[in-house]
TrEMBL record, chain A:
Subcellular location: Cell membrane
Xref: InterPro entries: BPD_transp_1_N, MetI-like, MetI-like_sf
Highest taxon of source: Bacteria
Gene Ontology cellular-component annotations: plasma membrane
A Pfam short name: BPD_transp_1
Family: Belongs to the binding-protein-dependent transport system permease family.
Predominant cellular place of this UniProt entry's protein: membrane
CDD domains: TM_PBP2
Presence of keyword DNA repair: no
Domain ABC transmembrane type-1: 94-335
Name listed for the protein in its UniProt record: ABC transporter permease
Organism, scientific name: Vreelandella alkaliphila
TrEMBL record, chain B:
Similarity-based family: Belongs to the ABC transporter superfamily.
Membrane protein topology class: Peripheral membrane protein
GO process terms (BP): peptide transport; transmembrane transport
UniProt protein name: ABC-type dipeptide transporter
EC number: 7.4.2.9
ABC transporter domain residues: 6-254
Organism ancestry: Bacteria, Pseudomonadati, Pseudomonadota, Gammaproteobacteria, Oceanospirillales
Domain of life (superkingdom): Bacteria
Gene Ontology MF, one: ATP binding
Naturally occurring in which organism (per UniProt): Vreelandella alkaliphila
Length: 349, 338
């Protein structure tokens, strides 16, 4: 167990090293950070001085060595724009993103398992067919389009006049299909509760939760259909297995056959994929946060790219790399816990 | 009244290209403590027969007709709820491949306890005590530790012992064993079979043994059915059928046993292979492979290719064969004229 965690720590360090080299290598193509910092009116000589001071004129190797030396000591450099340590900037934005990812994950888990299981048990029912069709649509629509649609329907509101308003049934149907559009679609709201450090939470107040709903749904919109389909496919395969037949032959209730015998085996590959996808979702937040102006890491990262804020970009990429490694490690631990045939390195048999 | 009475069982599979009749006109009975063998090549319908008894055939298969009566209750029309009370409780099953039968993510103890709890109102502690007792009966070394182990930690032979233990958990009236030793190592096969036989005798449990091993059938069972292409073609006392098979197919099967071959010669075999159920030959399904299709005068018997043979009584056996029917008829005529 300890050996396993140490091995994963080495992975994390390796990932951070590779990412930092790659991120550094592309910095010349991101534009001139000095131009972004000082604007048009500053003379060239002064710009040159700033460049010299920031060490931007040094060769790549020298710059990277300087960065690496500081990074080992926990100093990832100062953001050009915020003029404070990049890690500090990220720490300020991280909680918002993590809460968003958490909420989206919650939506995915709560919906994908029951829908996936149901449509595997009753693949021919109209409800299953509806969900399968809807999931194809869900997978095909890009996140930002889903986000804009959600804003239109739930934040702005739509008025349907498809049916004759003069008749009572027409008015009723129109009213049924129209939406009021009273959901917030911008930022995290005013009612955040401070928890600890940089962490203010959306999860503690009604207003906070309301602000979280639309971004979380749009972030979940890509992964949810994927997981429904994955769970359905896995479950259908497991239901064909001998041990499920055998469980039925033992006279066990179908509920137990489905939710203990079949689901536990279904979840094994789902957990593996899920781990990777949670990491990917952190990356998807760039789109969602931009549309909803959610003040998290994704939005910050996009701004950093526009400003050629290299220390911030590099630090962000490294942090995301670490998040990937950490989530995968947690997933492997859970997997080892669920699947008795897997033994983690070092764990006594 | 027999413990189990199967009459005119008819199982079909509704496939896209039409209905396929996987089983037809299957009739047999099983008395308490009796052992019945069902033999035939792969695809003859043995497993379908086994699974249909407890209405466990997967879709698109379904029981289209006939009846399965257990203690007077008709199982094939019974509700799923009622059937569940019989499955694993009064009639339990042993599957073919012990490597696939146990759920890999549940411990042996869990898989035994859940079965007990599904049928009896008992505490986990009591259930574990019963499970332990059954594990001892199947002679597993250190049974206490097995309860907390997972299937992958055990060998194939041990797993099949556990499955036998699970089959005996609720002291059933009948065990249906679908090729219980086929997937095992040859050295273990005899051991497992002997254990199963011993426990069935000890507890007076009826056994329906599905196998293609005629040796095992002759040692273990009192009566047997021989199946071909979804039909029973010969049934009766095991001893009589093994010693004096009537149907050409049964004769072929027994001739194909390695011990029937002359040393140094090729093994005997039945030429051709089992027809597909969706495309059965006309008349007797066995006629394209039959060596006795010609009459004494050298002409092929028209009935063989045109008519599905009916059962005829021959001694204590029932045989579905035109040739046998003809011989019996000739003999009867001869006796009458004398």
């Amino acid at each position: 167990m300890i050996a396993f965690l140490i091995k994963r720590l080495m992975h994390a360090i390796l990932v951070m090293f590779v990412i930092s080299v790659l991120a550094f290598a592309i910095q010349d193509n991101l534009g001139d950070p000095v131009q972004q910092m000082v604007g048009q009116s500053v003379p060239e000589s002064e710009r040159e001085a700033i460049r010299e001071r920031l060490g931007l004129n040094d060769p790549f190797i020298v710059q990277y060595a300087r960065f690496a030396k500081n990074a080992v000591q926990g100093d990832f450099g100062d953001s050009y724009f915020y003029r404070e340590p990049a890690l500090e900037v990220i720490a300020r934005h991280l909680p918002a993103t993590l809460e968003l990812v958490f909420a989206a994950t919650l939506i995915i888990v709560l919906f994908s398992v029951p829908i996936g299981v149901y449509s595997a048990i009753k693949p021919r029912s109209p409800i299953s067919r509806f969900f399968m069709g809807a999931s194809i649509i869900g997978i095909s629509i890009p996140v930002f389009l889903t986000a804009i649609l959600l804003i239109q329907i739930f934040a702005i509101g739509i008025t349907i006049t498809l049916f004759p308003e003069s008749t009572s049934w027409g008015a009723w149907l129109n009213g049924l299909l129209s939406t009021e559009g009273n959901m917030p679609s911008f930022g995290r709201g005013y009612d955040l509760v401070h928890v600890v450090g940089h962490w203010d939470t959306n999860l503690a107040t009604w207003n906070g939760l309301q602000h979280l709903v639309l971004p979380a749904i749009s972030l979940a919109s890509i992964m949810l259909p994927l997981f429904i389909r994955l769970i359905r496919a896995e479950m259908m395969e497991v239901l064909q297995s001998e041990y499920v037949k055998y469980a039925r032959a033992k006279g066990i209730s179908m509920r137990r056959v489905y939710f203990v015998h079949a689901l536990k085996n279904t979840m094994l590959p789902v957990i593996t994929v899920g781990g990777v996808q949670i990491g990917t979702m952190v990356a998807y937040t760039i789109l969602t946060e931009t549309v909803f102006q959610w003040p998290g890491m994704g939005l910050m990262f996009l701004d950093a790219i526009n400003r050629a804020d290299i220390p911030l970009i590099v630090t962000y990429l490294m942090i995301v790399g670490v998040i990937f490694v950490v989530t995968n490690t947690i997933v492997d631990l859970i997997y080892g816990f669920v699947n008795p045939t897997v033994k983690l390195t070092g764990k006594p048999a | 009244m027999a413990l189990l009475e199967v009459s005119q069982l008819d199982v079909r599979f509704a496939l896209r290209q039409g209905e396929v009749r996987a089983l037809r006109d299957v009739n047999f009975t099983l008395e308490r403590g009796e052992r019945l063998g069902i033999v035939g090549e792969s695809g003859a319908g043995k497993s379908v027969a086994a699974f249909s008894l407890l209405n466990l055939i997967a879709k698109p298969g379904f029981i289209a007709g006939g009846s399965i009566k257990f203690e007077g209750q008709t199982l094939n029309t019974m509700s799923e709820r009622g059937l569940r009370k019989i499955r694993g409780n009064r009639i339990s099953m042993i599957f073919q491949d012990p490597m696939m039968t146990l759920n890999p993510v549940l411990s042996i103890g869990e898989q035994m306890v859940e079965c007990l709890k599904a049928h009896r109102r008992i505490s986990t502690k009591e259930a574990r005590a019963i499970a332990l007792d059954k594990l001892q009966q199947v002679q597993i070394p250190s049974p206490e530790t097995r309860l907390d182990q997972y299937p992958h930690e055990l060998s194939g032979g041990m797993r099949q012992r556990i499955i036998i233990a699970i089959a005996l958990l609720l002291d059933p009236d009948i065990i249906i064993a679908d090729e219980p030793t086929t997937a095992l190592d040859v050295t273990i096969q005899a051991e497992i079979m002997a254990l199963l036989l011993e426990l069935c005798e000890q507890h007076n449990v009826g056994l329906i043994l599905i196998t293609h091993d005629l040796g095992v059938v002759s040692q273990v069972t009192q009566r047997m059915l021989v199946m071909y292409a979804g039909r029973v073609i010969e049934q009766g006392l095991t001893r009589e059928i093994i010693n004096d098979p009537q149907h050409p197919y049964t004769q072929g099967l027994i001739n194909a046993l390695p011990q029937m071959a002359t040393p140094g010669e090729k093994l005997n075999q039945i030429r051709g292979s089992m027809p597909s159920l969706s495309n059965l030959p006309s008349g007797c399904a066995f006629h394209p492979r039959c060596d006795f299709i010609n009459r004494a005068d050298g002409q092929p018997r028209p009935a063989c290719t045109q008519q599905v043979p009916e059962f005829v009584e021959s001694g204590n056996c029932r045989v579905a064969c035109h040739m046998v029917a003809e011989m019996l008829e000739d003999r009867r005529l001869k006796e009458e004229t004398q």
